[in-house]
Amino acid sequence: MKLSVIGCGYLGAVHAAAMASIGHEVVGVDVDQRKIDALSKGEAPFFEPGLQEILAAGIEAGNLRFTTDMAEAAGAEVHFVGVGTPQQKDGYAADLTYVNAAVDGLLPYLAEGDIVAGKSTVPVGTAAGLAPRVSETGATLVWNPEFLREGWAVKDTLDPDRLVAGVPASAEGERAADILREVYAPAVAKGTPFLVVDLPTAELVKVSANAFLATKISFINAMAEIAEATGADVSKLAEAIGYDERIGRQFLKAGIGFGGGCLPKDIRAFSARAEELGRGESVAFLRQVDEINMRRRDRAVQLVVEGLDGAVFEKKVTVLGAAFKPHSDDIRDSPALDVAVRLHGLGANVTVTDPAAIENARRIHPQLTYVEDRDEAIRNADALVLVTEWDEYRRQLPPEHASSLTDGRVVVDGRNGLDAAAWRAAGWAYYGMGRP
Ligand code: UGA
Predict the structure, then answer these.
(1) Which protein residue's CA is at the shortest distance from atom 10 of ligand 1?
(2) Among 40, 193, 310, 400, whose CB has the most other CB atoms within 10 angstroms?
């Protein structure tokens, strides 16, 4: 099938390359010339395992191309819209500028029978607002939310847990659902659940999934706070409650909390939208989810101060990680970088290292010192703070090796990713999150 993908960021670039990898003819459109230049050469403009390979393969095979010219979307049967919906500068609501611009920019190139499939995460009701403009061209607007995780984006796109098609209740809607089934034929053939729902349900599925995940993380982080007050161990607690299948073990990792370009802004946009709908109280708990999450960053900073006996000024603190999570170079709302910046604000001599995110981090926080080589970063540190659980800092950093690089013996484990007993046995003062 001929497809267009409007917006080539973490979502769109992966979607375009993944769709080409299953045989579609795909054109990706973005306003950012630099991004398009890189993608056109088959180079991934950001770190995402597996993307480079399918991107290069699609370019090489000739069924994947990228352009800044929206006119080249003309002729595609399905136009996916995967532009960003960041938090507004002066409030909690989502900024829909890019979604509106993408859809309006597409209108002149739509033909009778085309499908416009929104993938961006939007406040419920957005699709209903856009639909009349799309309908005037003879095309149909549907919402097809995306559930990919950064770091697993290629796998999640090609082999998702479920597919959701939000369509209008009409013959065009039914036809659009059939066309989406065809787009995702390999996944559908594998038995991936394919849910056809109405537009508001599709929009809500996405935001409620992220709200649930954020709540799960803040729940366990709230338990970490209680554990800290009682001497309990939240890691063991999570393991024990996680054996109950109704609770499950995933997303119960206590630490410095969630960040990234999705969960934080999505729960805020959800609160803002609920207020607009007069249902603010239904999701009032999301404010607390957000507050608990932010408090954990304070806690990590507090532990470093405690570990250094209250005197962080001019102490060398090495921050292991900058990305909001491992296997990503994304630093949007990164708890890791936030901890680094706060320590810098307290006068510590902060050195940040990360296998993938240094370039992005340096652009936003040039005041910090960045060292690419992990061991160089650790050398002579007074304290180490693990904030992004890359394997390089967990499994592949034996405490004895760290001891050989520095005389400092303070380690704060902001992700509860280290073997506390092993670090203690090697002479380190180990501080976990919600662990004794
Ligand atoms: C999230 C959702 O997981 C995806 O399903 C969704 O498609 C995506 O947002 C989106 O809206 O596009 P992502 O932002 O890539 O994906 O990251 P997650 O894997 O959800 O992690 C989010 C944050 O939570 C990270 O900072 C991570 O370190 C933190 N986290 C995760 C915890 O602190 N504890 C956990 O147990 C799990």
Answers:
(1) 262
(2) 40
CATH of residue 27's domain is 3.40.50.720
Q: Phi and psi of 191, rounded to 5°? A: 95, 15
The enclosing H or E element of 320 equals strand 316-320
173 shares a domain with 249 = no
Residues 137 and 280 in one domain: no
Residue 113 region by backbone torsions, left for phi larger than 0, else alpha for psi between -120 and 50, else beta: left
- Residue 340 is predicted with a pLDDT of 98
- State the distance from the centre of ligand 1 to the C-alpha of 388, rounded, in angstroms: 13
What mean pLDDT do residues 313-324 have? 98
Catalytic residue among 102, 202, 262, 381: 262
pLDDT at residue 271, as a whole number: 98
pLDDT one-digit tens code per residue, 218-255: 999 999 999 999 999 999 999 999 999 999 999 999 99
Q: Spell out the residues 6+ positions from residue 380 whose beta carbon is closer than 8 angstroms to its own.
A: 316, 405, 406, 407, 408
Identify the band that residue 362 occupies on the pLDDT scale cut at 50, 70 and 90.
very high
Give pLDDT, residue 336. 98
Mean pLDDT (the chain, rounded) = 97
Task: Check: CB of residue 430 under 8 Å from CB of residue 233.
Answer: no
Q: Are residues 69 and 166 in the same domain?
A: yes
Residue 419: predicted pLDDT: 97
311: containing domain: 204-436
Q: How many other CB atoms are found less than 10 A from the CB of residue 271? A: 22
8 in catalytic set: no
Ligand 1 environment, Cβ below 6 A? 121, 146-150, 210, 213, 217, 251-253, 255, 257-260, 262-263, 324-325
Residue nearest to atom 23 of ligand 1 (CA): 258
Single out the residue in 197, 232, 265 at which a domain terminates.
197
Our count of domains for the chain comes to: 2
Collapsing DSSP to helix, strand or coil, 156 comes out as: helix
Tens digits of residue pLDDT in 106-130: 999 999 999 999 999 999 999 999 9
Ligand 1 centroid from CA 340, angstroms? 20
What pLDDT digit, counting tens, does each position of 252-279 carry? 999 999 999 999 999 999 999 999 999 9
Q: Are 155 and 78 part of one and the same domain?
A: yes
CA of 124 to the centre of ligand 1 (A): 21
**Which is it for the CA torsion 400, 401, 406, 409, positive or negative?**
negative
In the reported structure, the alpha carbon of residue 263 is separated from the centroid of ligand 1 by a whole-number distance in angstroms of 7
Residue nearest to atom 6 of ligand 1 (CA): 147
Same-domain status, 188 and 151: yes
Looking at the structure, tell me whether residues 166 and 303 fall in a common domain. no
